[in-house]
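2024-03-11 09:14:02 DEBUG pipeline.ingest accepted 1 chain
2024-03-11 09:14:02 DEBUG pipeline.ingest length=178
2024-03-11 09:14:03 DEBUG pipeline.predict start
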Amino acid sequence: MKLKVKKINFETGNVKVVVLNSEDAKKMGGKAGDHVLVKNLDSKTQKSLIAILDISYSDSIVAPGELGFLLDMGKSLKMAERVSIFLAEPPNSFKFIKKKIDGHSLNSEEINDIIFDAASGLLSQIELTAFITGVSINGMNNNEMTALTLAEARSGEIFDFGSEVFDKHSTYIAVSVM
């Protein structure tokens, strides 16, 4: 489906979301929360990206034939004039989230995928909530906790304290009086 881009002055933070008119969503067979592939028709060099679909039931927000780009998405796709949009499969990390909900342990690669996709804005709030619920209900073993901690650390900026680090936290000196 080919659509004209409409800029929406709204920001989600880190989640990659596009807004489609309800009529176009019905034609495409999409529903809110689906993953969609968005391709820039104005650029032959720029790759497609995956986003999460939101639906507008108001033509004043996004009219038929338009795809609403929130401010954060404009940064990701260099604000194209025209795009094509297709339904896409959820990322592999979604399968791993289901695996955790079903009570299975996850290996470090699976946890890395979940954290990478979460940090990249590829998972919806519902998918992230499902992961947290799966962990809350089924717990994590030591290997999973270690993998999660390392994946979270790698997802951001790591500060190097150097080779000699001293911790003075909670130091207590007891003095006895005679």
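2024-03-11 09:14:41 DEBUG pipeline.report Helices lie at 22-28, 71-76, 92-101, 108-119, 125-138, 142-154.
2024-03-11 09:14:41 DEBUG pipeline.predict end
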